[in-house]
Amino acid sequence: MLSILDTGKDLDEKATIRNVREFFNRELPIIKARAHQAYIDIQNYDFKNIPNDEKLSNYMQACQRLDEIVKAVIAIPTKNRQFIDYRYMKYKQWLEIEELSGYSRKRGQELLNEAFLYFANGFTDTYDFRVWY
Q1: CA end-to-end distance (rounded Å), the chain
Q2: How many angstroms separate the CA atoms of 47 and 132, rounded?
Q3: What are 74-97's pLDDT values in tens digits?
Q4: Lowest mean pLDDT: which of 30-34, 72-76, 121-125?
Q5: What is the SS3 assignment for 7-73?
Q6: Cα(59)–Cα(33) distance, rounded to whole angstroms?
Q7: What is the rounded CA–CA span in Å between residue 5 and residue 23?
Q8: Angle of helix 58-74 relative to helix 105-122, nearest 10 degrees?
Q9: Where are the domains of the chain?
C-alpha cells in the first residue's frame, strides 16, 4: 500500500480507484455538458481565467471545475494520462485504445488504474477521492 508523508495511514488503492472511476463515469459527463464541452483535447486545452471572487453561474462553475480536472490530468505521467484522455475525454472504446496505444486491454486498464491514483493525489485541493486505512 502507498503511504503518503508518513502519516501512519495507508492508502486503500482499490477504494480510491473505485471513487475516481465513478467520478469519471458519472460526474465528468455532467460537468462537460454544463461547460458545453463534448470533446476535450488535453494537448490544446484552453484554460479559462475565471475569477474566484464573483458569483458564478452553472456554466462558469462547470468551466472552472473542468479547468481543475484538466490541470490534474496534465500532471499525470504521459503513459498513464493517455488512457484517461482516450477513454474519458475522447470517448474511445477499448478496441480503439488498444490500436492507438499499442497496449492490450488488460495492460491499458492497469495503466488507467495507476492514472486514477495519480489523479486522486493531484486533485486533493478540489476534492479528496482518497480512502485511507
Answers
A1: 10
A2: 32
A3: 999 999 999 999 999 999 999 999
A4: 30-34
A5: CCCCECHHHHHHHHHHHHHHHHHHHHHHCCCCCCCHHHCCCCCCCCCCCCCHHHHHHHHHHHHHHHH
A6: 9
A7: 25
A8: 110
A9: 13-122
Count of other CB atoms within 10 angstroms of residue 97: 21
Find where cell 495507476 sits: 114
> Which residue carries 471545475 as its cell?
65
- Residue 76 is inside which H or E element, if any? none
> Rounded to the nearest 5 degrees, what angle is found at the Cα of 67, between the Cα atoms of 93 and 30?
55
Query: pTM for this one?
Result: 0.84
The conformation of residue 104, written as its DSSP 8-state character, comes to: -
SS3 assignment, position 75: coil
Amino acid at 22: E
DSSP single-letter state for residue 123: T
